[in-house]
């Protein structure tokens, strides 16, 4: 057994290779088995067609035909080598395509049996096709083996991989020689062996896990992030990658395009250019070609290319959503000057417009299902002391237009069909404020004790949440003016991205200061947002985040910070500036005025 292992597995196996090595080699061996079996039938057919079995044909004529056939194949291999750059970034797609070409070539070779008078042209075409497949297979072999090698053992992995292929090829050849003596049907044999070969090839390529990004894997990652907020792992990204791209397939995105291809008219460029003054790229949509173009400036680096590609995919996603497209055209055509320019508005610079477009796209089915009825648990934080208010009771229980502050937001949540329960985190002495305070409440009101810190109160509230809830919505009861429209928006975004928080763009100039109150620098407010509540997360994210925070003793400033520590993206839903937090007497007066203006 050790002797056999020395020929088929790398030294140190299985620790010397990645886990996906075994399934890859299994399918590779099967593919070579079917390939070896196929070779017997094609060789036999070619020899018969060229005239080996015919006594009237001279050996010289046979040799010339055979040499011409092989020469045509070498020319085809040489000409196709100029496509070599594509082997580096689309190697899985090209690897499967090469096996498909190999089967086409084998089919043409078998067809020479029916048309022996056309042997030379048919054999030449078949050999060109098979040599193109061979150069593709050879060129993509090393990067695949490299992905499986752990350490500096690429040579060992390659040698053992080729050994496995040769053994399987010999086994297939031997079995095929035995079967061919019984003169089976060529068509039936070809159909069976070809299906086995292509099926093995597909699974062989599918099992390859590459740790680099190409267009296909990048598309998988971006689409997953846009639709679910989840960035797939390497294994997930590779498993979801499209393996076969037909030549006639329309590519909706072009990276590194020329100016003349991207812009339909000069006005489109004039409208789009100002949006990307601070970037090393531009992104636009050409409706005449139904394609998104990413143009790279001379100073563009690898990070800029990734940003441009991401921006192009986001733009394409919105364009494909009809409702979002209508909304962008109607809401932003005046603001940006023309539809091409408006579509290219950078999402991180104009998040408020893109956020509404996302919700419109979701309504059209592009983002998935809306938030289900009775699927959200609200955790209403009402345990703070509110010392800055200087009142005799916590601020959330002070009257606001005849009703305690905390009850205003409770009333808002109880009227939403998405909410299934409200967990009030409060001091037991104030439970009576909430019990029976709102008429016609159709959902249960639960209670939890406040903790020493805000995160402790949230954790206590989480323990009372229904296990079947799909979202947990955490709200500060000192924000009585939150609107039901804003709550619905943040719930929808959390359902899509896993975590979302209401926020508003910072309007004031923000400066960083040192300990002596001297300005260190002025921050770019275009990227700054003031956070509000509700802050909404999926329960599993919140639970996992709490485990990490408690285990590592991490500091939490707001609720979504818990999720941020998991490296999970948090979406900012643009809220309203009227959603103020009542902290001081002036805030209370402002809240009264805002409510009177409703």
From TrEMBL:
GO molecular function, one term: 2-C-methyl-D-erythritol 4-phosphate cytidylyltransferase activity
Record GO biological process: isopentenyl diphosphate biosynthetic process, methylerythritol 4-phosphate pathway
UniProt keyword terms in alphabetical order: Isoprene biosynthesis, Nucleotidyltransferase, Transferase
Ranges for domain Protein root UVB sensitive/RUS: 3-228
EC numbers on record: 2.7.7.60
Keyword rRNA processing included in the entry's annotation: no
Keyword Nucleotidyltransferase carried by entry: yes
Domain Root UVB sensitive protein C-terminal residues, every copy: 231-333
Pathway(s) annotated for this protein in UniProt: Isoprenoid biosynthesis; isopentenyl diphosphate biosynthesis via DXP pathway; isopentenyl diphosphate from 1-deoxy-D-xylulose 5-phosphate: step 2/6
Family matches, as Gene3D superfamilies: Spore Coat Polysaccharide Biosynthesis Protein SpsA, Chain A (3.90.550.10)
Similarity section: Belongs to the IspD/TarI cytidylyltransferase family. IspD subfamily. Belongs to the RUS1 family.
PANTHER family: OS01G0886900 PROTEIN (PTHR12770:SF26), RUS1 FAMILY PROTEIN C16ORF58 (PTHR12770)
UniProt-recorded name of the protein: 2-C-methyl-D-erythritol 4-phosphate cytidylyltransferase, chloroplastic
Biological source species: Oryza meyeriana var. granulata
Source lineage: Eukaryota, Viridiplantae, Streptophyta, Embryophyta, Tracheophyta
